[in-house]
Amino acid sequence: MNKSAILLFAGLCTSVLASPAPKNIIMVVGDGMGPEYTTAYRMYRDDKSTAELEWTIFDHLLVGMASTHPDISNGYVTDSAAGATALSTGVKTYNGAIGVDINKQPVQTVLEFAKLQGRKTGVAVTSQINHATPAGFSAHNVSRQNYDAIANSYFDEKINGQFKLDVMLGGGWKYFIRQDRNLVEEFKQSGYTYVDDMSQLTQLTNKQPLLGLFADVGLPWALDLPNTPRLPALVKAAVKQLENDKGFFLLVEGSQIDWGGHSNDIAAAMGEMHDLGLTLEWLSQYVDNHPDTLFVVTADHSTGGMTIGARGEYNWDPEPLKHLKSSPDMLGKQLVDVSNRVDLASEQLGFALTKEEQQQLTVIDSHDPKVFTKAIKTILDKRSITGWTTGGHTGIDVQIFAKGPGSELFSGHRDNTDIAKTVFKLLGKK
Ligand code: MG
Ligand code: ZN
């Protein structure tokens, strides 16, 4: 080989080995989405007319696994605040901490660093926008419970004189429109476009900074909005609004997979998984069309200790989860004051109730919707053969999924803090 051939060869190697740094980075958190959820989702989406169990978008994007524990002085099981802080700063902390370390000192997040570099930034989530995960990327507070203070900080804390977040989409009227302070008005007066109905998201005509709040606290369950895939709608609008020459950083969260896990509600959890699955399908296409964009997906922890198969049965059956016309929470509310519970429940669940199931509903002597919801969840757990071991979180490793330039850097076994460290590097932090 002569000298120029060697140089050419070396040049080819570098271009193959190190993909250029991405211009846009989208981090996606499936809150509470342990590997049992992505496995169950594969079965939930299985096409029964074929002999194979088809891959889902999660299977196509899988690159690695991550440990999730908080600072070890706090034990091995994390909450979403410490989880988000690890994913956003690369620093382990205590449960409840929002963007602060174990000594309660603020630590820079990847979102803040991206803003400092001149990128646009945003959050698009199905919880309130000041909930633990988005707050862990955008705020610093000793406790996730300080919701009003965290909301205030979205307006009050500036980076280079600019607002931290160019786009905020999710729920949270309760925290942003208060007696003592109306942050929506303050943002509007500072040049933000404000929308409070998701249908407005497709009609935005300018690239002004954007605040969209669509619920008092979290958005309604995906199951209760069957015709409007809600996270895809938020993410499409956020990306469109953030696109610019200098690039953007967007934090996306499927917030309520975790809420389905906490309430041991397999139907709601699968509805949330599908909302996130559709979001990832759209993001995957987006990266095909915008090869300068990376997205990396992970979970902060798993929730509920969900099992695929339970009570000694060697099976799991997603079929009864596929035809619900409303969430078990909504159905519980509907059942309270209705004269014929069995008919309404069959209608909303999409299957005829057995004698035993009818009995379970008719014996209820209560006006508490939660009692009815519990009965519905019990029927669905039994039919689907789903088990639960806790109403809290579990310490199992979670998966990492990625696509786009730099996606290979997330492969293999990692710690959640490695994900933040890699994102910092890709954003150009030395
Ligand atoms: Mg969360
Ligand atoms: Zn949780």
Structure, described:
The protein is α/β, with parallel strands linked by helices and 430 residues long. The chain folds into two domains: 22-307 and 394-426, Alkaline Phosphatase, subunit A (3-Layer(aba) Sandwich), CATH 3.40.720; 319-385, Diphtheria Toxin Repressor, domain 2, CATH 1.10.60. Helices cover 40% and strands 16% of the residues. It is globular, with a radius of gyration of 23 Å. It starts with a helix and ends with a helix. The relative contact order is 0.19. The structure holds magnesium ion and zinc ion. Residues 31, 80, 127, 131-133, 253, 255, 258 line the site of magnesium ion.
Tags for this entry?
single chain, 430 residues, alpha/beta, Alkaline Phosphatase, subunit A, Diphtheria Toxin Repressor, domain 2, 2 domains, 10-stranded mixed sheet, two-stranded antiparallel sheet, 17 helices, 40% helix, binds magnesium ion, binds zinc ion
Summed up, what is this model?
The chain has helices at residues 3-17, 35-44, 57-61, 80-89, 110-116, 132-138, 147-156, 173-176, 183-189, 230-242, 257-262, 266-289, 328-335, 341-349, 355-362, 369-384, 416-426, and strands spanning 24-30, 62-67, 120-128, 158-159, 162-163, 167-171, 193-195, 210-213, 248-254, 293-298, 302-303, 307-308, 386-387, 393-394, 398-403, 412-415.
